[in-house]
Amino acid sequence: MACSIDNLDIEEEFSGDELEKDEEVKDVVMTGPADLSACKRKSKKISRQNSKENVVATTGFVHGPRSWKNSRRSRNGFGRGLPKKRGGGGKGVWGLPGSEMMEAYEDINDPNYDNENLSNGDIELKAVIPEISLEDIKKKCAPIVLEYFENGDTHEAAISFEDNIPHNVRDLLVQYVIEVAMDHKPSHREMTSVLISDLYGHIFTESDITKGFENLLANLTDLIIDIPDASTVLGNFMARAIADDCIPPKFLKIMKDKSDSQPFLDAIDRADTLFSMKHGLVRLHNVWGVGGALRPVKYLTRQMSLLLQEYMSSGDIAEAIRCVRSLEVPHFHHELVYEAIVMALEANSAVREEALCCLLKALSDAIIVTPDQMEHGFFRVYDDLSDISMDVPLAYIILDRFVERCFKQGFLTEDIMKKLPSRGRKRFVSEGDQQFIKNHRIS
């Protein structure tokens, strides 16, 4: 009985599965009381491992389900949670990014074997900067330059040039920017001179600007084909660059002896004349004039009045048109029409009226003065006619005659004719009344 009781106690200590698996324990139980000491020893906890071994005896660790069999996590319960070999190990993976470049192919039969291995020490590596031509610079810089002409932001242009143009071809950039400006208006040339001055020391160096001018002087013969006054314009650019301390004054003396071409010498002489004239450095800041939008109204009015006076003395319509365009104030052309009509009223001469009418017709045909600007100019005269008639008593009669002449030329609309003001002639005395008053005074 004692043995049977002890046998029951031993059975309670072991779990069902463990009791079935431990054959040695069964043998001990079936023995007598003499072996009870061996029966009462607790067996080690048996747990199944997710490894190649069937049974591994461990203490204090319980594994998860069998689905973790292929898990790559650390099996000791510790670890940083990082993939092995930083993602470069394991079956069916490509390895670390760029690791294929670090491999050394030493197998001669390997198709990737490199005969000129860098480890031999007989190969020298140098940085190669690709060459860029003027045509490539034109493609990259054309939108940048045109955008700068629109907004005038030199800082934005500097960032774009820095990102797109290498340092070794900045002289070609200077050349291209000046070529574009030579084919544009004086205001754009002034903006180009400001751009070169602002970017000097940051994007452009003195050697870049000097080489750019040398390239332009060498290609001046070809530039004259498209830009007849290229020598004068280039001379202005060089003189302005000297005034802005972008190139030294000795540049002109050095370049004089390098060519005998007449356009070349004309450009050098133009720059030398501007630089050596009295107060030349001060005047060179306005070598391109002041932009139309920046000029005061009084200045523009004065310039238009001088323009008309010069035209009346010379009769050169082409020169007058060139002067109007150089002012670059298309929104203010109504002032030119106003000044021309007032000049015709004050002259009271059929010859002057005909000349001014021809000038307005030429400006209208060339679409320099638009129809709305023409109407605005005439309507301004209509509004001020009462004041004008105080200085010119026959203003109404002369204006009627001048408007009729312009309408026959075909550049005035019927609206202007319909709105022409007229002052009713007051009846003072008739012919018979005049004789009556004379006789009355004698009597």
Automatic annotation (TrEMBL):
Primary location group: cytoplasm
The family assignment reads: Belongs to the PDCD4 family.
Q: Which SUPFAM superfamilies match?
A: ARM repeat
Q: Which UniProt keywords apply?
A: Cytoplasm, Nucleus, Repeat
Source domain of life is: Eukaryota
Region of interest (Disordered), ranges: 62-92
Native species: Nicrophorus vespilloides
**What InterPro entries does the record tag this protein with?**
ARM-type_fold, Initiation_fac_eIF4g_MI, PDCD4
The MI domain sits at 136-257, 299-422
Concerning Pfam families, the annotation shows: MA3
Can you say where in the cell this protein is located? Answer: Cytoplasm
Q: What is the protein name for this chain?
A: Programmed cell death protein 4
